[in-house]
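Honest question from a wet-lab person: if I give you the sequences of every part of a complex, can you actually get the arrangement of the whole thing, not just the pieces? Trying it with mine:
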Amino acid sequence: MPSLRLTGRGMWITALLVPPLAFVALFIVYPIISAFAYAFFDWNGLARGEFIGLANFYKVLFTEPYAAWTRNAFMHNVQVFFALMVLQNGAGFILAYCLWRGLPGARFHRVAVFLPVVLSTIIVGYLFKLFYHPLFGVVNISLKAVGLGFLAQPWLGQASTALWSIIVANAWHMVGFPTLVFLAGMQRIPGEVLDAVRMETESEWVKVTKVVWPLVAPSATVVFTLLFVGAFNWFEMPYVMVGLDGSPYGSTDVLGLYFYRTAFGNQSSAAQDFGAGSALAVLIFLFVAVVASVITTRLRAREIQL
Amino acid sequence: MRKRNLLRIGAVLGGLVMAMPSFAQELTFWSWRQEDKAVYEELIKTFEAENPGITVKLESFEAANYNTILSTALAGGTGPDLMMVRAFGGLETIASGGYLMPLDTTKIPALADFNPAALAAETMRSDQTLYAVPFASQTQFVIYNKAIFDQNGLQEPQTWDEFIKLSEDLKAKGVIPFANGTATAWQDETIVGALVSSLYGRSFYDDLMAGKVDFTDPRFTDALAKLKDITAYFPDGFIGLDYPSAQQLFASGMAAMFAGGSYEIANFRAQNPDIQLGVFAAPGMKADDEKLVAIYFDGGYAANAKTAHPEAALKFLNFVSSKEFGQVFANKLNNISTIPGVTFEDPLLGKVAELNQHSIPYLMLVHFRYGEPSGSVLLQGEVQKLLDNQTTPADIGKALTDGLATWYEPFKK
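Yes, you can. This is the full assembly:
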């Protein structure tokens, strides 16, 4: 084993490694570990009470009404994940394919599709909130203008449409990201492969399903995993558009909002329960970490190395 | 001899220098009212002039995050010497950690004349100790645009039927009767307090507090059914209309009435300086039913239990309990001060104070925010459900009672 003498090269490596490691330890590892620790204590307001083992976890998972709230929020996260998988990643793949095939205006659209991604979530959230405004919103006004006034809705006010409205806003905002990743994957497909396909078939469908899709598997791994992590940590968009309460009556509640309300309280409930909040945070973290690593390994396995 | 004198002078000067820090006592004061900063600065100048050697440094934070900022700072030992704190359950979160200085009439004699209900709002239930000087009461009622009422020859309604009739007339004339929207959850609690307090009435409130009835009582559920009826006069798609949009509809003169709190008055006037406002208590079924507004206390001024300058902090708390302070607070900040003897320059505030003579507490905030799930959260969600046609008043009564039964003793079976 080579000894790492603190001279020359070794010194350099140490000097370059220590500050970022210290930073990560202080601002990422330490908070995560302390959240783990908080979850095992009883909290009286801000004062830490006694060690209570797994009671906080039991409370958020099995005691009513917490258990019902947790289930409700979790199911919404699942819905958001699948909806965005279709709306955001699906549309992203189609857009990427159109851009890659160089349809007219592809250069312009490559920029246009990615532009919303660089806008802040706050801006997009408020913008869509205005679009959905029941009286002056562009959605209802357009529907009325084309004689579809009966379809005008209080989009964010009813359980049947509220979550979907936020999902659509999110898909519009972020669709440029999977598009760009898929496009990069498609541009990496070697010309010989495509020439060989052209000898066999003229069908776009066969080309997409048998050649392009398998060959952009590494891009799919990236966007699927990131979407999964994003969907289960979803917070900003619903927070901006419907507030902390998952309004109306919990129909847009997701784990992120629920965690925040539980730990820090909100305007209408004084309780700040750091214990239950931390327990939720730990559960979300474990769920995302475990499932994301399973997804990544499974998806990696189907990637083809060229 | 000379040498000794010099020594003496030196000792005196040294003593003075040593004593300097205790002369210049600087207190920090945290507030969530960024919009009131100028008036507070002015009040602080008055205080500093009366108490030489004490300076107060005001820092204000955004209201929505104030609780989190304050509680984190206190827990971390970097909290302010003086601070605004919430009332009821919101006070207890902070006070239960032992961060606030206990107060009583020996420390602040003026408290002896305060309204007991106001003091109760800043008292922690477990140790029956007062932790803050209450500053304002808020009233939930109907605010209306006088110009629109005058143009249409309308009067403040005396019965529920007149109330509906008046809304119908306004609608027929193309004016939006109520500006309210219910997409912002807490507005759903507001409209209950503002519109149907007189319908369920004092008798229901007293029975509920006595533990004789719960929320399945028909007086309460019938009132919710009436609430649903009157939302027919809210704007189109009001369930998707958020709070700021509703405020703008009213302030811009597009709607005639706003069911809300006395805190809206200053805001409406700021948005539209020409607006002429009136207020009334929503009526009961019959003209001789007591017309009630819903009232609660907003918050108070507290001192840090671990402040380095407890005497100076108490001097400040005595100052904010004085009539001199309350008068400026009422006139410049348009608030209903809790300090006894304060008079109101503004006739509208005078009217609010008059309506407060017939009031019942703003139910959920005052009594049901001490446990999880809070009554406010339950009621807000259930009213949103009702207005989205997903539940009935009877089911709401049951949902509220069952939900609160997890921690509210009188409902436990």
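Two things worth pointing out. The two ends of chain B are 88 Å apart (CA to CA). Chain B touches chain A through 52 residues (CB under 8 Å).
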